[in-house]
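=== Structure Prediction Worksheet ===
Name of assembly: unnamed complex
Input type: mixed (protein and possibly other molecules)
Chain count: three
Listed entries:
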Amino acid sequence: MAALILAEVPALPLNTAGRYVAAAYIVLFVIVVIYVAIIGLRLSRLERDLGEMLELPERPPQHAETEQPAHTESTPA
Amino acid sequence: MTPQYGRGLRTLSILTVAMLALALVLVFFYAPLEAEQGFLQKIFYVHVPLAIIALSGFVIGGLLAIQHLRTRDSRWDMRSYVVIHMSLIFAVGTLITGSIWAKGSWGHWWVWNEPTLVSFLIIFLLYATYQPLRFAIEDPERQSRYASVFAITAGAFVPMNFIAVRLSSAYLHPRVLGSTSNLPGSMALTFLVSLIALALLFATLCKLELTAKHTRAQVRALRRRLAGDDELPARRGRSAVPVISATGGPAAGGAG
Amino acid sequence: MRRTVGALLRKELLVELRTLESVPGMSLFAVTTFVVFHFALNRSSVEGDLAAGILWVTLLFAAVLGANRLFVADADQGGFDGFLLAPVDRTAMLISKVLTMLAYLVVLELVAVPAFALLLLGAPLGRALPDLIATLALCDVGIAVIGTLVAALAVQTRARDLLGPLLALPLLLPVVIGGARASSPLFVSGHLGSTQGRWLLSLALYDLVFGLIAYALFDFLLED
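=== Predicted Assembly ===
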């Protein structure tokens, strides 16, 4: 399978122009990967925030005693 | 009705990946070697689509800003911000790939007689001020308004700039990096596929960004509702990012 | 509308005449810059492209410095609020400010161009004057429009002194291109070239497009 692909690949002039072409395409790749990383960071921060919020109603909030019972309805199951 | 920015994201990403793969295959296995520049010419298939998409993105950002000023709905400002932000990144990509191409062709990392590169440098310098401008205005409503004025002015500037730079260098030197006219069929097809693939990539990344921002706003609103207003952690200073409410509507709290 | 613009314009020019805070500074800056160029380039006389470049860079930077001051008084001393309370068309402020900026630029050039001819220019200016004036006029309109728009944007921000030039310079590049290319054949001694109409045409197009855009967008900057 790999041999079939390798047979089709054109001779890559990796010592001359090939380096520049590779660099240009790598730039595109890096842009996309950096974006994925940024979104990933945001996702983990969101996960942490949501985790904190899940824990919130378990701690007795200071003003909870005077709150209406309806306040607890917003607690996710 | 809360808008779902993430709907359709999976389909879009799959389509993007497929097109990108197809484009790469075409570039390296199908498109013929160009006579003058040889293998180096393959950069054309990534540099020029990046350029076209970045420029279109800037103009689209201006159009979205017009919508924002017309409707005063901050969702348009959010979209304008994301599109301009992404176009700026694509513009940087254009400059870098163009510079690599110049180095490969001429041995210089920068050439002044390639009008596209020069125009891009100017446009990059202009749009690089977009975020500092937003950052320097604290009031969110005014920030959005002023940013839209800037986006519209700069969007009109893009074609004007191209004309001016083209005019100023046309009679000095011939185009260095080749033009897109007179392409043989196989190259034209490869170019078209690359263009579509990168346009899809642009759309996917923008959608990703919009979804992420909206989700964060929703989480913040949820926390505020659960914990009471006094538990909201202090916003970390000023923000250059437009504010949208959890319902995705105008931040002023009116019905979306 | 015309009366509003007239009244506003009179106010602007009166204030400038009394405080003299923009125009003398701009003019002095231009002349000093010519001296700087003399030492930086180590030349006593310049011609052609180099001359056009020096003149236009100097004019551009002086103009941008002056544009910075356009709205500062209004922003700091409540001039905006006063204007917004009056039952007049808001675009009148744009037009009056653009005309004010034009006036500043004309005075600037009345000082800077002869100074340039005296200090640095190697070629006689006489026969080239009509073409040069046409070029300057077209460029001035462009600089005035963009300078006013950018000043209105920048005055409400925190780093207004930095952001103004930062925004204005890229936007004004087509003006620099048009102005420099149009005037460089005028600065050649001996064989007097003439301005290519192409540049004047593109300058006029630029003025038209951005004049319309500024006209359409200015109202949005004034709201509160």
